[in-house]
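Lesson 9: reading folded outputs for more than one chain in a single document. The general rule is that every protein is listed as its sequence immediately followed by its structure tokens, and records are never interleaved. Here is the first one.
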Amino acid sequence: MRWIILLLFFLLFCGSCRKLLDPGDPVDGGTSGTVYQSDASAAAVLTGLFYNMSNDGAFMGAEGLSYLCGLSADEFLLQQEDELSLDMYKNQVTPNTVPIWRLLYKYIYQANAAIEGLTASTRLTPAIRQQLTGEAMFVRAFCYFYLVNLFDEVPLVTGTDYKVNATMRRTPVVKVYERIQQDLEDAVTLLRTDYVQADILSTTPERVRPNKWAATALLARVHLYRNNWQAAITAATAIIDNKAVYDTVPLSKVFLKNSKEAIWQIQPVNKTFTEDAMLFIQQLPVFAAQTFMQIFEKDDLRKQYWLAGVSDRYPYKYKAADATKPVTEYLMVLRLAEQYLIRAEARLHSADKDGALKDLMVVRQRAGLPVPRINGAGPIDDAIQHERQVELFSEWGHRWLDLKRTHKVNNVMKAATAAKGGNWKAYQQWYPIPRSEMLLNPNLTQNEGYQE
């Protein structure tokens, strides 16, 4: 990963931005030795990182996780055939075209640099240093969660020494998860319980910087993926019980900025609408797959509120795409409904069938649905996975990752890929390591099945 050599310490400020993500005066890359000598400049580092995440593309739009992972799974019917979309859709992505890797590692590098600088600094207000360190750890964990679930084993980079980073081998998945979990546990203890503005001092109703609950929410997901059922229950419960801050809202209000369902959102800083709104309701590259439409139960209100267009087929969770109107929506990253579904699944695996059904019904009742007909534990699990598929449709690759973690990917994708004009092979559940990275780092090995 010798590309890191080319990164200046801060690739953070790509133009002006507004409100909470306004970094103020740009921090010069040559001043990395002094940037952590004041609270304001240190805060600008993490503000700039969040600004980058709202603009670079890995988290939204046509190269974002929601779109690309949805193409890889069985969520979409592709309507336009650019090279990358078609490769992802037919599960024929190659080492020459694989996206996401480079940007996620860029964010990790910036987080690593921030952690090092914050740890070494003796000039910062302790509470500000603590909050910023927690934010950086959260970002690093978030990025590694997606890297390890998309690429399998990946290099675990936790420092900024390019000589070390450029020759790192791939790290076993269990070790990457251990780092993710530790970062999140540390972040939970470091981050504030409220939401803060860019000065890290003032509180705000805007939910665009991660707090303790955002770290807890991601930790609940990590525990679910690792089959740590009781830990997943504990983490999800901590958020669900915090009714003063988080609660379910009507379907029409879920994706609004500062929705009470939102645990962490990304603010669109250069537009008055989200990139996902522009993609899904203006460019219309995809419709919902026919197999997805067929699983909707009668009277499910999510079809009415979250799908639109011809035969109610294109994703419509984000509705604002008018540049002349004020900002009404932020990109939802972590939200409360997922926590109910996490706890439902974990409770079922902990032999709490009644608790699992109770959590499941929170999501179903909002969608206007009755108690599902269930007989035995297996059907409850099927009902939970059904709700995840419908509730989290077109969000952050949940369906793609769920198929893999529940070991259903081969059965589902064999038929789905054939319907998309491709030919499914089991190795395609993992994206290939980019060829450019392998050329720079001779210690990287390619995922099985991909030709070099």
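And here is the second record, again sequence then tokens.
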Amino acid sequence: MQKTSRSRLLVLGVCAVLPSFLKRPLFRLFFGYKIGKRVRIGLSIIDARECIIDDDVSIGHLNVITRVEKLNIKDHVRIGHLNVIRGGTEVSLGRYAEIIRMNEINSIPEPEVVNPIDPVFILGDGSIVTTGHKIDFTDRVEIGRRVILGGRNSSIWTHNRQRTMPITIGPLVYLGSEIRMAPGSAIPARSIVGIGSVITGALAEEGKLIAGVPAKTVKELSTEDQFLIERKTRPDLPDDV
């Protein structure tokens, strides 16, 4: 997406300070956004070439979503406060997903790399990104259903100086604090990743505890571990998510 013009930024700024019942029709009128019922938007900037926000979405204060080509926010998504989502051809937040606060989800525009890029960020249904995490999606980052990126200060990055590689996290995964995921890494379904682990490649065995630097499978999940990944990520999460 091209750099936001001053006039567009001015209108977005004016819309940001208005109450939700005024924001919704103005977003539809001036920008062609498709916004559903009972959507609440706080003091936040939403700048996308194409934007679809489904019913019962809640977006808090001081969020900046900018220079996104296609923004697709499914029903009952919650975005807290002080989050930044910047760039990319597509950002898709699944049903009942949640981005809590102070997270940075960023795609570098026109990176100097030797391979084709696919700057897409997908957060699966019922998945949660908690606090202070940094996610680079200069290439594709796909996070599966009911994943918890827990704790604080994890980093996921898809590029280095010469090339990009996608990153995948399977469904029903719990990640502790300060996790590092390098370009091309992958975490299989139904896994728990221990605090401070560094994922440098594509791991294959499902249902394991993953830990270490570099990370590897450590042991089978215990009954308590199974409960952690299988319990609902939100009290209002439907059984079909």
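What the second record shows: DSSP finds three helices and 24 strands in the chain.
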